[in-house]
Structure formats: structure tokens, C-alpha cells
Amino acid sequence: MAKALKVAGKNLAGKVVADFALAIDAMGGDHAPDSILDGLELAAERHPNARFLLVGDEARIGALLARRPRAAKACSLRHAPEAIPGDMKPTAALRVRGSSMRIAIDAVAQGEASGVVSAGNTGALMALAKIVVKTLPEIDRPALAAIGPSARGDVVMLDLGANLQCDSRNLVEFAIMGDAFARAVLGLTNPTMGLLNVGSEELKGDERVRVAAETLRDSHLGTNFRGFVEGHDIAAGTVDVIVTDGFTGNVALKTGEGALKLMRDLLRQVFTSSMPARMGYLLARPALDRLREWMDPRRYNGAVLIGLNGVVVKSHGGTDAVGFAHAVDVAMDMVTHRFNDRIREGLALLPSPAQRLAATPR
Amino acid sequence: MAKALKVAGKNLAGKVVADFALAIDAMGGDHAPDSILDGLELAAERHPNARFLLVGDEARIGALLARRPRAAKACSLRHAPEAIPGDMKPTAALRVRGSSMRIAIDAVAQGEASGVVSAGNTGALMALAKIVVKTLPEIDRPALAAIGPSARGDVVMLDLGANLQCDSRNLVEFAIMGDAFARAVLGLTNPTMGLLNVGSEELKGDERVRVAAETLRDSHLGTNFRGFVEGHDIAAGTVDVIVTDGFTGNVALKTGEGALKLMRDLLRQVFTSSMPARMGYLLARPALDRLREWMDPRRYNGAVLIGLNGVVVKSHGGTDAVGFAHAVDVAMDMVTHRFNDRIREGLALLPSPAQRLAATPR
Description:
alpha/beta
């Protein structure tokens, strides 16, 4: 009975609880499977009621699980004979039916798990998720979203690279999905939102962003829509949700990360440059440690491919257990807050796709 | 005789030295004309042989000049009855014939000055420069370029917002202009170059960047062209010149600036958070001061609109005398290194525009 309902996909609307909260690709990432299992050991402690479907090389993972009691208790193991290499092209990855990534994604498509987390090949994950889990019927294109630090708290940005060229309709849909994401993952009741542009005046930018801004101003999101924001508004935290196309979003994300990394490296140089500087570091250490913790990229690990019939989270490939556990947190937030229901509610408040298409030229 | 030659524009090819190295818009910027004149006082010391044409409200500026002996000696004053407000639209600014910005730009077009520096309205400056100074015949569209800090020294990035939508031909021309800029302003003999993209693999990105990369690989810039770079490569300084479209470049520039500003603010908080932290600051101060100086945005003030029949430099509107003097330095570097000759040399080494057009679809 439960199976029949799940096959019908009803679990995705939150009506049926899947057997597993998340399917986990144990073989993806630079330090897999060790870092994945260490991350699950942390995640199992934070989510004591969650069940995970762990997919990978059974013999190898079984041995590792034996030494991680919490993860062992929370996980069911499913064998996958293959793993997708980090440099495999998405088209080739689609043909590897027995990969850990594919079998984990299949579990979402079949309603066995509500979401999937992988630290593996990004392009392969996006392609597989779109084809196997499928895009929500109301959405034209899924987007990659993530959370980052700002002067005024965490901010959500999307698209971070799933769609390099976007039209105004895509941007409007990203806004709706970003709003739902900020509610589910940041727990905000009224997230403010801005559209990334080269200036904040209404006349700035190209047709694409101007039409999207007009549509958003007239929509149910209008009261929280703050219009155009600029690059410096990301770190300033001027708005909670920043909407942009995948090319700009990917470059902006990596530019900001790069600037923060440069500062971390330079500060390390500063505090090792002389004996007094070393002493200075020791004196200021509590505050400096808080700053370092705040900037820790592991705290922001976990980009989400949103707009699909299930929760799909990509962990950074190079992250460690702490970072992977954070990606699991993000996925759990989306599963427990029934993220896709929020998107559907948002889309229902917009004019119909046909009306939208007519109103917002591609 | 000299005048006839100048009217023929030959000064721009470096064959005739103009009466003035630079025309200066004395009325543009948040703290004009005071900050402009203070900046010129610094610039006159650094460029003792340069003559400047100072354009603005004669009575007001005459009084200010009287108290700045070096600037007074280096400048000739020309009256402008009007000034372009910061919020005036470019189309409106084009109609104000008596503005200080317009009269300064006219001096470049007429060969009286080799370049112009303004801290005024960016949109107005770009529109006026394009229409009055005019684009180089070999160039499709001028671009906005500037220098920024990285882990491996200064890097050049363009376009920073002059062209929101670019085709592959534009990107190739930006690369040639960026190469010339890095030679003239950074003094590099073999600047390396990268095309900003969402990944470094050859197959990443859209048609536009892939075609541009192919053209650059096959061109005389091929040996220094490092292919695609990503957002984090900007701060890492992976290459000397980063080429991108104006939308992405503008967002990336402001995102990086925003991240660095956030770090400055947070460090200030760290070092005022407790008495020991204050003492720690004092101990580490020499190295922290070097870091602050290195990050000082005034050191990077001066964006250049390149691809025109003359040197056009935009100073940040909110900068002070030190920042404005730096913008003058950038303009002087371009004038003395005959920047436009370098661009012409680079363009001559490419296939003809007709061939390029055929090879690189718009």
C-alpha cells in the first residue's frame, strides 16, 4: 500500500513519509567514502530520527560503518558496483546505471527517499537529477541555490550555475523558489529579495532583468521585492534572497569566496610576520576565532538543485565530515519543511504559465 | 601648424604631443571641486612635467587653486558654466554643452589634451566620451577596465559595465585592449590572460565564451592565453588580465569589493571587541597597517574607458584626494605609454574585422 502511494509520487507532496529521509551517495567526493561516513556520524547525532539509505561499495562501506556506531544505526546499506569519476562528462555518467550516484537518485525518483546528498561530480548530479527525478511540472528550469554569509546574516543566492543563459521567466521562477528556500532553510517568515544587476536604479540593466523586476513588483512577492541589487549587496546582506542567472551567480559566488580566502591567507601572514604580531594574535584570539568560524566555508556547504520532484543537494567535493554534515542539514531542512509544497504555493499565486509566457518575453 | 596636426587627430597616435597631458573635470564627484584640487596637488608633485587643463566654475576654482601652489602651477583654468548632476540621465547630459565634463571631453576630441579624468556621473561620461571622443575605427565597442589587488599582484579586469551583453567578437577585442592596458599601466611585458567562465574545462560555458576562447587560442595572444578562469581566480591572481562581459564584470568587481569591505568591518569589530584584542591590534599593527594599505580601494581608483580616440578615466565619485590622484596616475600611464598605439598593434595582428566577423558568430 505504502509502496503504491510512493510510486505515485505522493510522498513528494509531503503526504506520505518515505522510508528514508535521504539517500546518500557514499562514493562521491575527494575523500569519499571516509569523509562521507564521518559526516553521517555527525548528521546521525543531529537528526536522531532520520533514516538514511547509504549507497556505495558494500564491502568497503560495511567495514567503515562498523567503526561509526551512530551512522551504522541510522543507515541502511545498498550496494552500487560503480562510482562516477569526478571528471566524467554528464552524458557519459547518464549511461552508468550501477553508479552509487544513480542508485541514490533512483531511490528519490521511486519515492523511497525524500532527497539525495552527493559530494560527487556536479555536472553528472545535475544531469541525472533532472532526467531521473524530473523537474516540477510548473517550473521551466531547476536552479542551483546556496546560502552564504553576509554582514546582516545568511543570504540565499540562486542560480549558481545550473542555467548559464536565463530569460526573465526563469528569473521570476528562481525568485519564487528562492523565497521558498529562504523560508524552509533559513526559517524566515518574510524573506526580502533583490535581482542582481549593474545598478540599483529602475532603468539599469538589460531587458531581461527589467522585465523580471516588473513581473516581481506586480506579483505576490512584490511587498518583499526590493528591486535591483548590486554585487556589493551580497556581502552587505541588503536582502535575504539574491536572484540572478547561472553564469553571473556562479562567477559572483566564486569571486566572493576567493576574496574571503585571500583575506584568510593574508591574515595568517600578518599574524606570523613577527613575534609581536604572534603575541597580538594570541591576545585577540577569541574574537579572531569567532571570525574564522563565521567565515568557515564548511558552514555554508550544500548547494541545492531546486525545482525538482525531490530534494537534491550537492556537497562540495573537497569538504570534510563537518562540511558534509552541513550539506545533510540543508537537505533535512528542505525535507522536513516540505520545501516543494512551498514552491507550489508560490507558483499558484502567480498568473498561469501561459499568461506569464505572454507577459514576459523570452 | 601644431594646431592643424592636432585637429587631424595625429596627437592620438602619439606623433604630436598635446598642449595638455590631461583635461580634468573639476566639478564631478561627491566632494568636488575640493577633493579634485587636493588630488591635483598630489598629482602635480608626482608628474612635475605634466600640464593639466582644469575645467569648472572659474571663480570658485580660482580661489581654491590660490591655496594649492603645485596644482596652480601645473594647471590652466577653463570656465564651464554648468556641471552634470550625479543623477542626470546620459541622454540629458548629452544636451548640456556647457558642462565641465563636456568641455573637458571636447578638449580631448580636439587634440588639446591626450586624456580626461572625471569623478562625475559614470553614465554621462561613457555616453559623452563615446559620442565626442569616438570609438577607435578598429573597435566595435569600448570597454571599462580597472586594476584590482590579488594574491599575486595587481590584475586587470574588463569589461566592468560598459557593455551588458557581449558577443564573442567583443570579448576578443576586450582581450586585445586588456593586454595593451596591462602592458601600459602595470608595465608587464608578457601579461597572461584568462576568460571568465563557470569552469576551467574547455567544454564549460556558453557558445559565446567558447568561440572567443578558440579565437584567442589561435591568435598572437595564444601563448599568453590561459583559457577559462573562474571567479576565485580573480583574487588568486591566476592571470594578469581577466576578460568578461560588462554585466558579469560589474557584478564580480562589486562582489569582490563588497567581500573585502565586509572583512575590513569585521576586523575592526574584532580589534575593538575587548581590551586584550585592542592590545593585540597594537602588537600586530605594523603588519595590519600594511594589509590595510594594500586593500585600500583608493590605490585601485580609476576605471578606464578603453577603445576610444583618447584616454578617458573615471574616478570613483566618493573618493578623496589620494584616490583622485591615483586615477590621474592611471591616465598618465596610459598617455605616456601611448596606450592606443599598443591596441592598434594588437588589432593589426588579428585577422581583419571581416574575417573575424565571419569566424566568430555574434
